[in-house]
Amino acid sequence: MSAVTPASSSPPAVRPQGCTNFKLRQLVRVVGAHYDAEVGKTGLKTTQYTLLSHITKLGPIRAVELAQQMHMSASTLSRNLRPLIEAGWVEQAPGPDARSWFIQATPEGQAKRSEAQRRWRAAQEALNARLGPERVVALHALIDESLQILDEEGAGHGLE
Questions:
Q1: Tens digit of pLDDT for each residue in 68-120?
Q2: How many CA atoms lie less than 13 Å away from 47 in the CB half-sphere?
Q3: How confident is the model at residue 7 (pLDDT cuts 50, 70, 90)?
Q4: CA dihedral 128, 34, 53, 133 (to 10 degrees)
Q5: Are 116 and 124 in contact (CB under 8 A)?
Q6: Where is the signal peptide (predicted)?
Q7: Domains of the chain and CATH, by start
Q8: Sheet of 61-62: strands edge to edge?
């Protein structure tokens, strides 16, 4: 009589299928369009609202510090600031030396941010209702955890 080996009771290994980058970009496009449609009613793009919100919260702030806080390059920050400055919502004030500047929201910028914040909140509440609050909380937790792991490993500059 031969010994019979029992079938493995452990589940098969999970193997992700598809490209994570592509899937994330799909999600970002759909969610971004949702927010853009709502925040856009104020004349701001969602990216401009985010920048104006950071400036309102952190300002007056040096450009280099704002770029660090927002995890963007100085050139990207400069390019994104230009329309806000031209609209009169943000201004540059001289810093402690001739080479430094402080960035701050003008009173008009603070009012624009408040208007856009109401539209952003409407977009967020609609997304919460559509996806369900539990799924949104889980998504935020998964994103935060993933960012922390990738940041700890220094993988933000090219995964191999």
A1: 888 899 899 999 999 999 999 999 988 888 778 899 999 999 999 999 999 99
A2: 9
A3: low
A4: 10
A5: no
A6: none
A7: 24-153 (1.10.10.10)
A8: 61-62, 101-105, 90-94
pTM for the complete prediction? Answer: 0.75
Strand, coil or helix: what is 37?
helix
| Residue 3 DSSP SS3 | coil
b/e code 80-112 from CB counts within 10 Å (16+ = b): bbeebeebebbbeeeeeeeeebbbbbbeebbeb
SS3 93: strand
106, 90 in Cβ contact below 8 A? yes
Spatial separation of the C-alpha atoms in residues 38 and 123, rounded to whole Å: 6
Residue 47 pLDDT greater than 80, yes or no: yes
